[in-house]
Amino acid sequence: MRPSQNHHRALVAFALILREGSVSRAAAALGVTQSAVTQQIARLERQVGEKLLRHGRDGPELTTAGRRFHELADRLLTLDQAISERLEQQRDLMAGQLTLMANAPLPALRLIGEFSRAWPQIHVDFALKDWTTAMAHLRERRIDIGIITNPDLSGDWQTHVLERPRYVAYLRRDDALAGAATLSLAQIAERRLLLPERGSLTRRTVCARLSEMGLSPAHSMTTAGFPLMKEAVLQGIGVGVFLEDSTVSTEGLIMKPIADLPERFETCLVVPRDRAALRLVDTFVQMAISGTSDLENLG
Q1: Could you give the C-alpha distances from 44 to 1, 2, 22, 140, 234, in angstroms and in order?
Q2: For residue 126, which of 150, 144, 152, 114 has the smallest C-alpha distance?
Q3: Start-end ranges of CATH 1.10.10.10 in the chain?
Q4: What is the CATH number of domain 5-88?
Q5: pLDDT tens for each residue of 198-244
Q6: In a 10 Å sphere around its CB, with 0-12 CB exposed, 13-18 middle and 19+ buried, how is residue 279 labelled?
Q7: Fewer Cβ in 10 A, N or C end of the chain?
Q8: Does domain 97-164+266-289 have CATH number 3.40.190.10?
């Protein structure tokens, strides 16, 4: 059966719901009512014979049937955007929206700040998630750009290395361990160990090394991301482990190298290959990599 204009509109609406995170925001992006989008999706689901979307904790989620159609639908949406940009032949970036996700606050927020100062008219949606969630959103094409440490390179991405950080311990300046040049995991394990949520690269890396060394923390606490971990450290709750330079200078907080975690990891800019030519995406990427010419381009 030859695809109709209605199929095209419904597939674009379907992709936008995932990209925007809600039916109402997809409708706003399309310039139609929420009811119109709901009806388009209902007709598409009747043609498929199965539900494509379900309600999730963080918004719409793909069903098994939805996963089979979503990549094609999102590619259609991306092609529509590229055609619109070519037809409009805009010389300046005067409007638009970018959706980004990262597994650490820096360098993501630093890059967003630089981009926003140069192009203040562009709306940026940014979310900080654990590594597993960030990679899932990238695979499901729900974001334009990921800033992710040691990303899975099996997808059809363009990838640029931004930084090569290592894991460090975050302590209060008045902590008893603050005077040491380097800490061991054995020293940290004697304290309350603060780690990010399950699904994070940090938790997986630290727990694997502790297991290899036969160590078990005396006490531990799970924190929902680095900002909460930082506050917990400042409140004297324990010692946090996270990527170095994940925050700007904070009075009362210091970083210490961990002798048992000497490896450096790669924080990368990751973009679905077919979105890389979109004007907004390409502008952000070029700005981000302009200061990293000494790092290897993995794309």
Answers
A1: 14, 15, 17, 19, 52
A2: 144
A3: 5-88
A4: 1.10.10.10
A5: 889 999 999 999 999 999 998 999 998 888 999 999 999 999 999 99
A6: middle
A7: N
A8: yes
